[in-house]
């Protein structure tokens, strides 16, 4: 897309001519300064006369620097009249037609970069999925599965206050050729949802860097703190995403999570399990 560059091209010509004129004047003044410097050192000319010659050369040099900067600005503005993508892709929509007057910062087209396509979906604000979480993507009309290995690339840091949702983008690997940009898709979240664990809210403790839980190692009955993503809070319970060690202990039926007094624990402390306390499954 090209903007009318007539006025900008004239500005480039004007600024370039001004810079060239000042460069010639400065080069002449610099030559005079070098010549009179030697005469000043021998006392052939007065100190005040030489200072005037030197001041003129320095002034012209400063003017030349400003003129060069203005020339570069004019050249950049002229270059901006041609919109160039920095990579291959597809133009999705155009918002300006020939003859329209546009202003700086106005959107004139939407461009999608080439490469794996992405599915955009709005998630509930309390769904704290980690980057890299997987999902199933299927066609919304036919329900045909496109991929079972979509990966969460980005999740918006700011929620939509009207809908209480955040936008998330899933990369669709090996995007099929029949998948169209703008196509309506269904995203089914699968990343570790079956691994989610419900614990008492009192078991979740934030040590300052991230929330986590204290678990009891079955081999020595010592507690260890495990940072875990907090999915959501449901009343007096919290839904967390256990790490691999916690999943292994849960699979073997040995997982025990401390639910009381978590603020007073320190790593490596030995705890006693009350007889009536059940294991976390």
Automatic annotation (TrEMBL):
GO cellular component terms, semicolon-separated = efflux pump complex
Q: Which domain of life is it from?
A: Bacteria
Q: Which GO terms describe its molecular function?
A: efflux transmembrane transporter activity
InterPro entries hit by this protein: RND_pump_MFP
**Which family does this protein fall into?**
Belongs to the membrane fusion protein (MFP) (TC 8.A.1) family.
Q: Which NCBIfam families match?
A: RND_mfp (TIGR01730)
Protein name (database record): RND efflux pump membrane fusion protein barrel-sandwich domain-containing protein
Please give the organism. Answer: Acetobacter aceti
Its lineage reads: Bacteria, Pseudomonadati, Pseudomonadota, Alphaproteobacteria, Acetobacterales
């Amino acid at each position: 897309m090209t903007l009318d560059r007539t006025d900008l091209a004239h500005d480039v010509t004007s600024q370039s001519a001004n810079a060239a004129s000042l460069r010639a004047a400065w080069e002449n003044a610099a030559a005079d300064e070098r010549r009179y410097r030697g005469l000043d050192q021998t006392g052939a000319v007065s100190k005040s006369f030489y200072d005037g010659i030197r001041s003129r050369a320095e002034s012209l040099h400063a003017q030349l620097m400003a003129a060069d900067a203005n020339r570069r600005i004019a050249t950049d503005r002229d270059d901006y009249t041609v919109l160039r993508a920095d990579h291959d892709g597809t133009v999705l929509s155009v918002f300006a037609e020939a003859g329209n007057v546009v202003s700086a910062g106005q959107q004139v087209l939407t461009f999608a970069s080439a490469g794996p396509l992405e599915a955009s979906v709005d998630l509930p604000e309390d769904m704290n999925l980690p980057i890299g979480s997987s999902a199933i993507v299927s066609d919304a009309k036919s329900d045909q599965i496109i991929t079972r290995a979509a990966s969460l690339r980005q999740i918006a840091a700011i929620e939509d206050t009207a809908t209480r949702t955040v936008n998330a983008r899933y990369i669709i690997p090996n995007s099929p050729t029949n998948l169209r940009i703008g196509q309506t898709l269904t995203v089914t979240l699968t990343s570790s949802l079956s691994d989610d664990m419900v614990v008492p809210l009192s078991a979740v403790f934030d040590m300052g860097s991230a929330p986590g839980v204290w678990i009891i190692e079955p081999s020595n009955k010592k507690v260890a703190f495990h940072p875990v993503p907090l999915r959501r809070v449901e009343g007096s319970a919290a839904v967390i995403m256990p790490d691999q060690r916690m999943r292994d202990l849960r699979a073997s039926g040995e997982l025990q999570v401390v639910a009381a007094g978590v603020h007073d624990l320190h790593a490596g402390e030995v705890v006693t399990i009350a007889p009536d306390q059940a294991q976390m499954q």
